[in-house]
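Hi W.,

Here's what went into the run:
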Amino acid sequence: MSVNFTTPLFKVERDENKCIQCRVCEKQCSNKVHSYDAEDDVMRAKDQDCVNCHRCVLLCPTGALIIKKYPNEFRENANWNGQAISEIYKQADTGTVLLTSMGNPKPFTIYWDKMLLNASQVTNPSIDPLREPMETRVLIGRKPDKLEYNAKGELVTEIPPQIELNVPIMFSAMSYGSISRNAHESLARAATELGICYNTGEGGLNRDFYKYGKNTIVQVASGRFGVNKEYLNAGAAIEIKIGQGAKPGIGGHLPGRKVGEDVSATRMIPIGSDAISPAPHHDIYSIEDLRQLIYSLKEVSGYKKPVFVKIAAVHNAAAIASGIARAGADVIVVDGFRGGTGAAPLRVRDNVGIPIELALASIDERLRQEGIRNQISLVIAGSVRNSADIVKAIALGADAVYIGSAALLAIGCHMCMSCATGKCNWGIATQEPELVKRLNPDIMYKRLVNLISAWNHEIQEIIGGMGINAIDSLRGNRLMLRGIGLTNKELEILGIHHAGE
Amino acid sequence: MLKEGQIRIPSGCAISGIIDKKGNRFTGDVIMKSIALMHDRSNGLGGGFAAYGIYPQYKDLFALHIFYDNTSIKAQTEEFIEKHFEIESAGDIPTTPVEGITNKPLIWRYFVTPRTYLVRDGFMDENEFTSRCIIKINADYKGAYVFSSGKNMGAFKGVGFPEDIGKFFMLENYEAYFWSAHGRFPTNTPGWWGGAHPFTMLNWSVVHNGEISSYDANRRFVEMFGYKCTLQTDTEVITYLFDLLVRKHGIPIEKAMKIMTAPFWDDIDRESEDVKKELKSLRAVYANALVNGPFSIVLGCENGMIALNDRIKLRSMVAAEKGSKTFVASEESAIRIICPDPDRVWSPRGGEPVIAFLEGAQK
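Here's what came out:
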């Protein structure tokens, strides 16, 4: 074998004193890192194949394994760092686009962490959620500009369909195909128990999961996989996916090896065929085309379901969002550049799009300037990591958030960013039956319920501290935010004051 | 130091309101006595009154009460008023020196009618036209501030203890069927006359005790409909919310209450399907008009008085009735000092309005 110049990213360290050669690590590793060398009666590891998913570490009965960053270093160079060099080697070797997974890991400013929240002191009492009602329910959907009453004092306005969420959180679109059946089942059951929604992603809806329809958002993306009349009427809402934060402007590609019998039936494509979603919808080349699709979907669902339109946060997001609102969408979803994905070209993921915090602030403000913010719901995604991020998002102007990566972390994802390989050792981003069955939905859905319940408690605690007892009064309440370490321009875009002001 | 409008200043307060539902008028001494009893709830940085029924001779004209910082802004503002309104009568509002009341601005009063052709040109009614003119003056004419603009009603306010402000304006000489009063305890203010309460818009007046935590959500909501919150005070935004909901959107006033102090979802869920549907619609469409945090307010409108507490009653408010009169105040003692033997005294529950309208008025 000729030298391909690449060095491993991780180093497997095995404590020989602890290792009992039970070979669990070998059985668990889908990347075939571990092997037993009978000749020398020793366990060996192929460092270069390790993705650092911690499966072997956590399952080793004697705790003999540690995965470390590979200590080999290039000569120090602030410009040509190790990653930059290795990427050149890889592309020179393969001649291909670099593929990666999950969200943008680069050290861009995380604006959530540059915003601080307010609390009540003296002039205004904080409210204790354990003693007082504390409302986190939100209604997602289009609202009329005003309600009308007749002379008899009766309400005459019928409001369009709304989705009720007990907590302003939904599980983001992750298709059946990109993630496993068991992962989908966990999300669906958790959403049902929590009174929230999960999103099918663009891969159709497995027939077995129609029963969770009340808590399901069905997605229609450019590939139109698994889309039919029954599917469109199976959920509580329909989402048109125009773009995704991790790869704005780019379509999708589910490799044929992930298209087994079940995925094939759900997506309505032949077994083993690649499922390629085009970059644009080929029936949407302009905003007026979007309007036609929105209304086609409303027609097919009898105007009984809100239609979401999801876009990636790009430079002109505010104007685009306004167009979407005027095109008749009921809900705008904006996905920031940190949003996760099963697979994306690395250059796109790391360089295209803008932070969701800035996109959200400017969209909310733009829609208000146009006097239409109240008519449409605004949902954000890409990357919401905890309850404080959610509180900040809502204070900036969001109605609710989608979480994807956080939900997967709850069911065991270790953020090894290797989903595209299809060899997820945790049974999430894989279709291999042996791996899928590692993920037990009976256990995992409860972990999701736990996570959202915990976050809900935290949200209640935080807003109660602000003297607010309904999430409605937090929405767009930017006075509850202060920036820290931000420039005037950043503060201006976020529409907030600096701490101390 | 930044003044009201440049910075948001929270404040605590005392409020009091008295209405005679038969429309019998009485002088300002009564309300002054009531608010004076709650002296310790104010700190001398703001006091004010709203009085309804005081200008019967001009009852069809808008009465503009305006503070001016100097004569040059007065001239500019008058030019604007002249252009948009016919001025029936103009003059300064009579005042008398009172110890502790200093730095008084120029305080003027105009009785006006909008110029008909302008109203017609703008496809508006005269209320909408007048409110837009007032918003324009308050936002764009620096040093001029319209603090009252209703018909047959007026606000009187300034920096000082409320009882002193009352004496300063000689309210004992005015007769109204409904009075409300406010003593202010701001946590930080240079004391600007325009920042005192009540806040008014057309015939609405609001006195308010509390600090609403939903302020910015409410502000950004009303600003979508053309309002400009130049003062950054709770009272201002609450007034605009009422104006938007009731005048502009035509929501019945008791439904507007269900928006601003919305019933809890748990309670809504227990209602019949019809009621549930209506309440849900109100909460869905007007979610950002929910007023949160501690407050008690006395709202004045053409029909009379409405007093309202926040949903979980984080501010004190007591109500009482005696004959045709209804009283509300931050403290019961402020009622008993002027009405020692009321027929009924009660503490309204959170979110449960006290509605005391003139006899024959439409709710």
